[in-house]
UniProtKB/TrEMBL annotation:
<feature type="transmembrane region" description="Helical">
    <location>
        <begin position="37"/>
        <end position="54"/>
    </location>
</feature>
<keyword id="KW-0812">Transmembrane</keyword>
<feature type="transmembrane region" description="Helical">
    <location>
        <begin position="114"/>
        <end position="136"/>
    </location>
</feature>
<feature type="transmembrane region" description="Helical">
    <location>
        <begin position="210"/>
        <end position="236"/>
    </location>
</feature>
<keyword id="KW-0472">Membrane</keyword>
<dbReference type="Pfam" id="PF09955">
    <property type="entry name" value="DUF2189"/>
</dbReference>
<keyword id="KW-1133">Transmembrane helix</keyword>
<dbReference type="InterPro" id="IPR018692">
    <property type="entry name" value="DUF2189"/>
</dbReference>
<protein>
    <recommendedName>
        <fullName>DUF2189 domain-containing protein</fullName>
    </recommendedName>
</protein>
<feature type="transmembrane region" description="Helical">
    <location>
        <begin position="61"/>
        <end position="83"/>
    </location>
</feature>
<feature type="transmembrane region" description="Helical">
    <location>
        <begin position="157"/>
        <end position="176"/>
    </location>
</feature>
Length: 265
């Protein structure tokens, strides 16, 4: 059921500046407060998946390091339903998980294809990360303290810097391809190629704010992980809702204040 919000938010697109990421976060937090259930359920499920990763790779940290960084690559597609929630908020409606699940049950081939591509990118990074750490590290990396001691805190420039560089080289094109494309695929019926092209255009047009937004996302994700993943329960939905507002500003999307229920795309 769609419940009418008492005061529908009419957020007009704003010029994209270095202050925009803070604006997007504020709007994302406001969306979570208006309709908390879908976001917190997403956050809890993603945190639970992270706990499962921790348990599965508890004695194989070389897999764990790649798995968590690869998880960040795939996470945007897993939070796609929250773009639908933010879109509903812009129309003055409050939607539940039933409507979010309906989006996935619609079988939108564009989202499925994009998700598979992100999954392949994440898997490729997990394998690359594991290979780098196991082949290059002078000592076995079995626990987080081993990674800290033998990879991060070594004096010589080498493995850690290469690991970060390769991760950035993979993450940058994935970020540029998806930061606008995923919300656009939920919001419109454009093909994947057009959505990806628009995403790259937005990043190229606003390189400073988009680089800062990527850094903000990485820092918040890191904070969430450092809190034994508990912080992700709130931070994941805030980032997802904020990403919707980033898309609205970058694409100059006007708010939809129709009284009718949001349509599925």
């Amino acid at each position: 059921m769609n419940d009418r919000l008492s005061h529908p938010p009419a957020t007009l697109p704003a010029p994209v500046t270095l202050r925009s990421p803070l604006r997007w976060l504020a709007l994302g937090w406001a969306d979570l407060r208006r309709n908390p259930a879908p976001g917190l359920i997403h956050g809890l499920l993603l945190a639970a998946f992270g706990w499962l990763l921790l348990w599965a790779a508890r004695d194989q940290f070389w897999w764990l390091a790649g798995a968590f960084s690869g998880f960040l690559i795939v996470a945007p597609i897993l939070a796609t339903g929250l773009y639908h929630v933010s879109r509903a908020c812009s129309r003055g409606h409050c939607v539940g998980m039933a409507e979010v699940l309906q989006l996935w049950r619609s079988g939108d081939g564009r989202l499925v294809r994009f998700g598979l591509l992100l999954g392949l990118a994440g898997t490729g990074w997990v394998l690359t990360s594991a290979g780098l750490i196991t082949l290059w590290s002078p000592e076995p990396i079995l626990k987080p303290v081993d990674f800290l001691r033998h990879v991060v805190l070594v004096r010589d420039i080498g493995l850690f810097e290469v690991w970060l560089l390769m991760g950035a080289l993979l993450a940058a094109p994935v970020y540029a391809s998806s930061v606008v494309a995923l919300p656009m695929l939920v919001d419109t019926s454009v093909p994947v190629s057009m959505a990806v092209a628009e995403s790259w255009r937005a990043v190229a047009t606003h390189p400073g704010p988009m680089a800062l937004w990527a850094l903000v996302i990485a820092v918040l994700a890191g904070i969430g992980m450092l809190t034994a993943l508990l912080g992700l329960i709130v931070l994941i939905p805030v980032i997802a809702h904020a990403s919707w507002h980033a898309y609205c500003d970058l694409s100059q999307r006007l708010p939809d204040l129709q009284a009718s229920a949001p349509t599925q795309t």
